[in-house]
Amino acid sequence: WALAEAAAARQRIDLAWGAVLTRFLTLECGSGRQLLSAGRVQTPTLRLAADRERDREDFMARPFWNVTLLAGDPPIEATAVGGPFWDEGGAQALVALAGLGDTAVVERVEHRERRDPPPAPFNTTSFLAQASRQGTSPSRAMLAAQSLYVSGEISYPRTDNTVYPPSTAFHEILGRLAESTYAAYAERLLARSNLTVSRGPIQTTDHPPLHPTAAPAKRRAGLRSWVYDLIARRFLATLSPASVAAVTEAHLRVGDTEFLAVGETTVDPGWREILPDENPVSALPDLKEGDALPLREIRIVEERTKPPPLHTAGTLLLTMQRLGLGTKSTRHEIVDLLFRRQYVSGRSIRTTAAGRALVDALAIYGPDVTTPDMTRHLEDRMSDIAEGRATLGEVVAESRHALHGVLAELRAHRESLGRWVRDATFFEKDYGACDACADGRLVRRKARNGWAFLGCSRFPECRQRYRLGALGQRLPWSESAATADAAEVPSTAA
């Protein structure tokens, strides 16, 4: 019963915040004709994307220099110890000193072993993040996973858990996979005397991590097959031993300058046989102390510090999970909503003019709704309901009080807020001054039948309008060419 009350509280709270804020913004900033939505999870998520984009815009790249050499046959590449150099003169001086020699002498060779543990089991967020990283949108990946669950091929796809419960029938699942294209991996794991299972940082009791429950159905290659393969390979990898590599570090000296070359070879692929390394490191040739390698080239490589990468849908999901924004079932829907509202665009997520204006204005005039703090607090309170420490009525009343405070702050600045957002969205679709009244602007509109046209922003006082050609050119309006009634609904097209 407590869990049901927690779910009911979430539903009421989300509906209240979304409906109240969306209605206010649509009426005040969209003149009632352009839907501008906001919410206790949606808006902080939009700010995450906007802040990352702003950090990237404000980033000042700094140049730096590395000195590298090629020596030996076959040639190996080594980098000067002490780099990178933030002054090009230092790199040039080092090259001048090193250039006095014609051989690179191996001073010492060090060997060590590196063990890479298998990855953690998939929960919903990490699964969708990985799907996004490999080019599939979270919403499409989730639909495919839901279909696989309904057909009995995978476990329930909505879970926070990254720790398999003791009741997981590993041998039974492996037995089923042994009758599929994963037979080689499954049989090798079944032959082990004991299975060592990886675990992630989040342990819950709701549902197990995502894993296959049956061999894949025979179907044409497509999204469902791809998603099943992603889940099955991660499951097999979590039951596999660590990957072991032998790492070699060769310290070379040219004159008074020391260089370092690093290589590695695989000793035991372990789980990487199932999930190969995307950027493997090549091996070094057999080197011994005292070897003199013919010097082929010494060069200065100029690089620049890189700005933080823009968010993708996948990194946004992981950040939402870390900050406690949304739930396993809603995070991908929130990200998808930002795209559908045209607040963000692109695989590397950038905010549109409307999205940036909205979140920037709210950050000034209603900052509580743009930060994760308020949402995280409400999530904690809903957990209190589930665990019997609070009642539904108490938490809903607390949420209502917080919402009233945010709304009061927005109402106090309604004119400034509305002007800020309207200006940004207005000029995004501005086609210049109206040539009929001179006071209005020609903006892109959409007729009831979906056709786009240009109309005066002072409608209905001024009824000037133009048709838009296929290439966006302005054409004279004629009822025979465009019979659509010019309903004043802003186009959602850019």
Give the tags.
single chain; 494 residues; alpha+beta; Topoisomerase I, domain 2; Topoisomerase I, domain 3; Topoisomerase I, domain 4; 4 domains; six-stranded antiparallel β-barrel; six-stranded antiparallel sheet; 14 helices; 40% helix; globular; disordered C terminus
Brief overview:
With 494 residues, the protein is α+β, with helices and mostly antiparallel strands.
Domain count, please report it. Answer: 4
**What percent of residues are in strands?**
15-25%
Mean pLDDT: 87
**Helix amount, in percent?**
25-40%
The chain-level structural class is alpha+beta
CATH architecture of the largest domain: Orthogonal Bundle
Number of helical segments with 4 or more residues: 14
The SSE string, one letter per element, is: HHEEHEHHHHHEEEHHEEHHHHEEEEEE
Number of strands: 14
Tell me about this structure.
- The chain has 494 residues and is of the alpha+beta class.
- It folds into four domains: 2-57 and 310-423, Topoisomerase I, domain 2 (Orthogonal Bundle); 63-117 and 243-304, Distorted Sandwich (Topoisomerase I, domain 3), CATH 2.70.20.10; 124-238, Topoisomerase I, domain 4; 433-490, no CATH class.
- The protein is 40% helix and 19% strand.
- The chain is built from 14 helices and 14 strands.
- Strands 1-2-5-4-3-6 form a six-stranded antiparallel beta barrel. Strands 9, 10, 11, 12, 13 and 14 form a six-stranded antiparallel sheet that branches.
- Helix 1 (2-29) runs antiparallel to helix 12, helix 4 crosses helix 5 and helix 5 packs across helix 8.
- The longest helix is centred in the N-terminal third of the chain and has 28 residues, at 2-29.
- The model is unreliable at 479-494 (pLDDT under 50).
